[in-house]
Specification:
The complex is a heterodimer. Chain A is an alpha/beta fold. In chain A, 37% of the residues lie in helices and 16% in strands. In chain A, β3, α5 and β4 form a beta-alpha-beta unit. The longest helix of chain A is centred in the first third of the chain and has 16 residues. Chain B is mainly alpha-helical. In chain B, α1 packs antiparallel against α5.
């Protein structure tokens, strides 16, 4: 089939659950839907925390190993630093009308973004489907996820 | 650039957003909707009225704000304007393209 380079579908794999990565993933998925592009997210490994009911409201930003924080690594590792940086970032996000993680998940599902949990990572962390965000579309293997992404104009993105 | 629609000349951007709201009327809204394969119902007009009011009050529009409007929730907004709802709705409403990423 011919394709003129148009993006029809974004398949985004989220493998981390630091706030900055989760927001990048959610903004990209939501932004796709706003442009009339299909979007699906595959939550794998630590990315699963972004849809784990007991964890998703308590995600942090990374203060260690993150040079863009402009904070010495030793300082970033002190107790309370992650919490402090996270609360500062959350305040800034509210100012620019950015929803929190749970509200963002609700916006995504209402917008038609499909949310999938990775089966292998679920087994590894001993998570049950009941532990996860209620509007999840299902639990998939990698093979299932690739099948979801078949079609002309699909792009895959690993975060 | 100029565009002729339902016998009237309007000025639009390359993407088709009107640049002068005073040129807009409901007939033009209907015609732009038809170009986007949408037949406007009273429910659409309730949402379009809300969007125009927000624009007149200089409130920046976003999907999140639409969801909190009390007029329509996000799911229904996507049902009413299935492809790129915020862009399509603002285009029909005759107001500039929103710059929000969320």
């Amino acid at each position: 089939m011919e394709n003129d380079g148009k993006i029809n579908k974004m398949m985004i794999i989220l493998s981390k659950a630091t706030l900055e990565n989760v927001y990048a993933c959610f903004v990209l998925a939501n932004g796709a839907r706003m442009e009339g592009i299909e979007a699906e997210i595959f939550f794998t490994f630590f990315g699963l925390e972004a849809i784990h009911n007991k964890k998703l409201d308590h995600l942090h930003i990374a203060t260690v190993g993150n040079p863009a924080m402009h904070m010495p690594t030793m300082l970033g590792g002190l107790p309370g630093m992650e919490a402090l940086a996270t609360s500062m970032m959350k305040k800034e996000m509210e100012k620019i009308d950015m929803p929190d993680v749970r509200e963002f998940l609700e916006i995504l599902t209402a917008s038609g973004v499909k949310l999938w949990a990775c089966k292998l990572a679920m087994d590894m962390f001993h998570y049950q489907k009941e532990d996860l965000f209620e509007d999840l579309d299902g639990v998939l293997t990698v093979g299932d996820f690739y099948k979801q992404g078949s079609g002309v104009g699909t792009h895959m993105l690993f975060i | 650039m100029d565009k002729v629609i339902v016998g009237k000349t309007i000025s639009v951007t390359e993407e088709g957003f009107m640049t002068d709201f005073s040129q807009w009327d409901k007939g033009i809204g209907d015609a732009i909707a038809a170009e986007n394969c949408i037949v406007l119902t009273p429910r659409h007009w309730e949402v379009l009225d809300y969007i125009q009011t927000e624009y007149k009050n200089e409130v920046p529009l976003s999907i999140r704000k639409i969801g909190k409007s009390g007029i329509v929730d996000i799911k229904e907004f996507y049902q009413l304007f299935p492809v790129a709802p915020l862009k399509t709705a603002t285009k029909i409403a005759g107001i500039p393209k929103p710059v929000s990423c969320i």
